[in-house]
UniProtKB/TrEMBL annotation:
Annotated spans, Disordered: 80-111
InterPro entries: DUF3140
Official protein name in the record: DUF3140 domain-containing protein
Length: 111
């Protein structure tokens, strides 16, 4: 288990890199999986990690599980690795942007 100081730092870093609200992420997960004829149920939209991020955004820090903490580390590591200033996606790099948005990070969102 993560100690309190490490958990506080992880919580802050997770919420820094996940710059989409739970509503924005939920809508994105549904849109990204929709096709011309169907749209997935809200609780079934998106990949498992994106759904886990959404669940974490709706929790208090004291309610985190070990699986939540593991997912938070994965999201922070992934977004950080793909979002350094030299490699920040540009407006035309939709595939990369959409991958990051599935984790709750919109690289084009100001902030």
């Amino acid at each position: 288990m993560t100690d309190a100081l490490e958990l506080d730092a992880l919580w802050d870093e997770f919420h820094r890199v996940v710059n989409m609200t739970s509503q924005e992420l939920s809508a994105w997960l549904r849109v990204s999986e929709a096709d011309d004829d169907t749209e997935p149920l809200p609780d079934q939209a998106g990949d498992p990690l994106g759904q886990h991020v959404l669940a974490i955004l709706q929790k208090r820090r004291t309610d985190l599980t070990d699986a939540d903490i593991e997912a938070m580390y994965k999201v922070v590591d992934t977004v950080t690795a793909h979002s350094d200033t030299e490699n920040e996606p540009e407006a035309g790099d939709e595939h990369r942007r959409h991958r990051l948005m599935t984790l709750g990070h919109d690289p084009l969102k100001p902030g």
